[in-house]
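cron nightly-structures :: item 1 of 1
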Amino acid sequence: MSEIASPLWLQNFRRQAGMRRVIVVHGNVQDLALSPLSSDYVAVTDLLAQVLKDMAFDQVVRWNRADGMRGIDEAARARLVAEASGIAAPAASGTAAESYDMGDVSPPPVVPQTCDPQDFFRIVQQRLLASGRERSAFVIEWPQYLFGSANNLSEAERQWLLLLNAAASAPVETGNDHLGRPSSLVVLVCPRVGAIPPVLLQHNPAATDIVVPSPTRSEREEFLKRTARRWALSEGITPDTAPFADFVDALEGLAIRDLQQLMKLSRQSGPEPLKAEALCNLYRFGDRKSPWEDLNHAKLRTLVQSIGARVIGQDEAIHKINQVIIRAFTGLSGLQHSKKQRMPKGALFFVGPTGVGKTELAKSLAAFLFGDEDACIRFDMSEFNHEHSDQRLVGAPPGYVGYEEGGQLTNAVKRKPFSVLLFDEIEKAHPRILDKFLQILEDGRLTDGKGDTVSFAESVIIFTSNIGAADVQISDDVSSVRQAFLGQVQHHFVHQMKRPELLNRIGDNIVPFNFITVPGFLANIASSKLAPLRRKLHEKYGIRNLVFRDELAAMEAIAATAEARMGGRGVLNQLSKHLIDPLAEFLFEYGDDPGYLRGKSVRVIQRGGGAQFAFDLED
């Protein structure tokens, strides 16, 4: 096997350990790493101890509050404790009892078996301040459980920090005998550097911090190559193949411990081995089946027809959605970026007049892809128009009210990773909110206030906007309307919001919606609401039917009263005004005897061919 190269962070650690007094190692420290010294996967703290021993430290002492000091023999431990407590160390040979002269009046000194932080930090201080050639390295594990809030430290915690800072302040030995060797060192290993009181690092040239990053692509690839025969997958793992590369990409963001657990899951997931993608879904989301896997050529060929039945008069928008979903289905989403597996399945920007079907189209897509209209998760961006309202999306920072609850957006994606995320009226959001969307569209991920990273790789992102709806002139020329809306969007985000990069992330997927100017379309929208109206009348009053002499003529009369600029929503408002409100008054007259309506039909009488209606009952 070829020689293992040290990762950059480990190279930096070795370099810093040769000259610093205090190093805080944080980040992915609870993971495993491939050791260049033992050629095996070991815990990060074990790897740090290996490196320190390889650097010829005379003693490498590991300590945590639960287990005390480890990594040194009993004689060395006793000597360290004795030095720090001012007790004479036991003789090098024999036990304390053997070396004790029975003629002495007092019993021999007892070296305490202590795990107390005060005593340990006293040891650290004594060793780092001691002169001589002996060098000690102390690795402190789980220091996040030692210190409370930096603004509310107890007296004991302040004393421990004082001892650490006193140890770090030891002068640099610059003699010829010392420059080529490291000084005594203390290393604190914790997941978050914020868990260490900042006074230890700030303005302290003797101290530094080093971040252990998540495994890189090459590190994940190396793990899969080393363990290829241990996985139980339906297609196996063959290095240097396209499926192998896709599997490596799909593991983005997972730690080495995650990969080990994933490997165990592959052997425990059932009698039939799973595909790599299904295994990842099972591990990440608790469900081995992805709705994206249910898509097939036959179903996709019905997308335009299926969605077109619900959204009328927006053929160009439906065609664009069809393009985006086919691109995701063929696995070509995000190829213009370097991290294709992390990108959302698609990102679309719907712009156009109110009431023309933008929200309805998003709901229709959710129903088509995921079998449930509730998979369309809607956020009204007019509620996020303040500078700090981004905390509602991702959660408040630690220490703030609501921190434990997380963010509305990140929580929603955790619950439903397979979803259409609809951000309605995006132009009303504060510009700071848009920065979050830049991260989602670029990296496909977002870190919430609790530090959890949420993936958007299985979702479709849709923004809607009414930019220009009041300025663009109504026209039957679809091309001119399209260009007018695109110009309005460009001007708004470039010159007003100062966020042209958001448009760059969306690319060619800005979809202008047309004004609905064809009366037949508006009449069809009104007709689509008669079915739920009839169902409600039957359920509540037992009314058999709602009967028109000429239903189409009645709906066209209502549509003629609506303003074209208001779109389908304007038609529904007129439907309520001219038909539903008078019908409600008619039914109210029978409120004292609602049973009288049961089994009867309501006949709608159109007066004068206009949008004026009367009602009558018939058996």
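cron nightly-structures :: done
Confidence is low (pLDDT under 50) at residues 88-113, 334-340.
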